[in-house]
Design a protein that fits this description.
Layout: H1 3-32, H2 37-49, H3 52-77, H4 85-103, H5 109-135, H6 139-159, E1 183-185, E2 190-191, H7 192-210, H8 213-223, H9 225-230, H10 235-262, H11 273-283, H12 288-312, H13 318-342
Antiparallel strand pairs: 1-2
């Protein structure tokens, strides 16, 4: 069997093991509170896919998670740990909103605002990228801390220079109609952004990572930066581009959330999509197809948890617990796989 197929199968095993263990630990938590875990998972599934509206809401939730996670997969493939997608998402959303409100209703408002959103994410990722490549400062620290700078800076902008005059809350003016992504299915919230994410962003990232020279450079630098340098690859440029592309997609996700769902820029734009994207990218093993499946899985848990919470009187915070457990098992999955292979439980 070719090595590529083996590595792919191994990645699938690692993801499935991580999910199974996370569900197992979460089941223990359900049992400790007197709840039936099988029934709890049924309600989560029903809340996510039980009817048309539930399916649409799951897809709506999946959209920003998928776009952010694809960007993070690019960076993580290069072993560049962008923890700042949340801040990049907020800056992209703010840049796009400012562009949309400033332009008003013109034929080019939406496309210019989308590019402004991309640019906002790029700007916020470029700063730690330069600090990483030129000064050798650890990107985990800089990207993480810049989340707080971005969120509080946006709060200041929405409280003072860009606060709407027709609202009692610190939020922007409503986006002009020309800047709003069209709804595809009334009266649901199924919007054009879902198709953009699945049929444009996902294929482009897949092609970039698997069919281009840049994709090869990402993998090479991630596996061995020193060997890549001696092989003629500009390691610093590859790292910078990986971070910048990651930030661009986070910024795109931010503005699309404003354009399709919120219609105004608000302090509460994201429930943590930037951090959720880390879980999804790792669970999808930085493979665009795996990331897409993982995005749907996490979105389903998010949406279904509210139904489970109402039906079984369980806290919705169980989702955050499950995400944390997932990260632990994803990070430990390689060691778990080696143990299972050594014991003969798994053979690839």
């Amino acid at each position: 069997m070719p090595s590529l197929q083996k590595s792919t199968i191994r990645s699938i095993y690692k993801s499935l093991i991580s999910v199974a263990l996370a569900l197992g630990v979460t089941s223990i938590l359900f049992l400790a509170t007197g709840a039936n875990p099988i029934l709890a998972y049924y309600y989560i599934f029903y809340g996510a896919f039980g009817n048309l509206n539930a399916i649409v809401e799951t897809l709506v939730r999946m959209t920003p998670i998928l776009i952010v996670s694809l960007g993070l997969a690019i960076a993580f493939k290069c072993k560049v740990w962008n923890i700042g997608a949340e801040g990049q998402l907020y800056m992209g959303a703010m840049f796009g909103t400012i562009a949309a409100v400033s332009l008003g209703n013109t034929p080019f408002t939406l496309i210019i605002s989308i590019f402004a959103g991309l640019f906002g994410g790029i700007v916020w990722a470029f700063i730690p990228a330069i600090m990483k490549t030129k000064l050798g400062i650890n990107e985990v620290i800089t990207t993480f801390l810049m989340n707080y700078v971005a969120v509080y800076f946006v709060q200041w902008l929405l409280s003072y220079p860009f606060r709407s005059t027709d609202s009692l809350f610190p939020e922007s003016s409503k986006l002009p109609d020309a800047a709003i992504l069209p709804t595809l299915l009334q009266p649901t919230r199924l919007h054009l952004g879902i198709l953009i994410a699945v049929f444009i962003v996902l294929p482009l990232v897949y092609l970039l990572m698997t069919k281009t020279t840049f994709g090869y450079k990402l993998k090479a630098v991630g596996e061995n930066p020193e060997a890549s340098k001696y092989g003629g690859i500009n390691v610093s440029r590859t790292i910078l581009l990986a971070l910048v592309l990651s930030g661009a997609l986070a910024g795109l996700a931010g503005f699309m959330e404003v354009s399709a769902i919120q219609f105004r820029m608000r302090n509460s734009l994201s429930p943590g999509y930037g951090y959720t994207g880390i879980v999804v990218a790792l669970l999808g093993v930085n493979n665009p197809i795996g990331v897409a499946v993982s995005s749907l899985f996490i979105a389903a848990i998010f949406n279904g948890s509210s139904t489970m919470s109402r039906a079984m009187n369980q806290p919705q915070g169980i989702v955050d617990f499950m995400q944390g457990i997932l990260i632990i098992f994803v990070l430990a999955s390689e060691y778990i796989m080696r143990f299972l292979e050594k014991k003969g439980v798994v053979k690839i």
